[in-house]
């Protein structure tokens, strides 16, 4: 799996793979819908998915499109709240699902893997958010640079 090997050691990736379930989505197929209960997170192995929300006027708005290597649904893993948005496949996609139950098993069976994976997931998501928000630099370069610098200072002092 591409994502695991990019942020975990080979041994940790092999252990993590034992807890994941492969999911195939066809173009236009929903992974989950806004309001559904959260049952874990997904690693995108290949393909493209979009996060969309239903607006009060009945329209939908695409918030973001993700591709290979991205993580979606992670807030449900930690918050156990209903899905705040829907996720739909833009192209045929292949994902790996880490269910809440599998994550609980990892916490019991592989506590070090839980710590490393949680930290790495957080760092990957933070990097993704920073990249997604770089457009803000054109609007307010000084504020954005200061925000990015302070986040970098915080995360650079953390290590696993």
Give your account of this protein's structure.
With 160 residues, this protein is of the alpha+beta class. Helix content is 42%, strand content 27%. Strands 1-8-3-6 form a four-stranded antiparallel sheet. Strands 2-7-4-5 form a four-stranded antiparallel sheet, with no helix packed on it. The radius of gyration is 17 Å and the shape is globular.
Task: Offer a concise description of the structure.
With 160 residues, the chain is α+β, with helices and mostly antiparallel strands.
Please supply descriptive tags for the structure shown above.
four-stranded antiparallel sheet, globular, 8 strands, transmembrane helix, disordered C terminus, alpha+beta, 160 residues
Assign a percent range to the helix content: 40-55%
Strand content: 25-35%
Strand order of the largest sheet: 1-8-3-6
Low-confidence stretches: 130-160
Output the radius of gyration.
17 Å
Largest sheet: 4 strands, antiparallel
Separation, N- and C-terminal Cα atoms: 21 Å
Q: Class by helix and strand content?
A: alpha+beta
Please tally the β strands and state the result: 8
Shape assignment:
globular
Protein name: Cyclic nucleotide-binding protein
Keywords: Membrane, Transmembrane, Transmembrane helix
InterPro entries: cAMP-dep_PK_reg_su-like, cNMP-bd_dom, cNMP-bd_dom_sf, RmlC-like_jellyroll
Pfam family, one: cNMP_binding
